[in-house]
């Protein structure tokens, strides 16, 4: 599996705000926001449910990873998806850094991936309260 998720008990917009707050508590900032719904509407005139991809980055971890493996930027940042489901519930899904960074042979990167996953798991768990 390449990710893990939680059903958020609140609105789509509240989920975006809360996940951003919880990420901040763990040292992550949002580098990018891709509004998939708006993009597909503009480019293809397709109507989709609300769906955003947040590119989250912890600068300290990113620096360590880039120092160990300069091309690791191909696998960064850590993506977090907030999406509204057919039943109007909201899912927040996180990229599993261990699964993704397993592509790199450097053990120091694997160790770093475990640390990042711990932090993202804390973010997920913080959304449950």
TrEMBL record:
<dbReference type="InterPro" id="IPR016796">
    <property type="entry name" value="UCP021774"/>
</dbReference>
<protein>
    <recommendedName>
        <fullName>DUF302 domain-containing protein</fullName>
    </recommendedName>
</protein>
<dbReference type="InterPro" id="IPR005180">
    <property type="entry name" value="DUF302"/>
</dbReference>
<feature type="domain" description="DUF302">
    <location>
        <begin position="34"/>
        <end position="97"/>
    </location>
</feature>
<dbReference type="Pfam" id="PF03625">
    <property type="entry name" value="DUF302"/>
</dbReference>
<dbReference type="InterPro" id="IPR035923">
    <property type="entry name" value="TT1751-like_sf"/>
</dbReference>
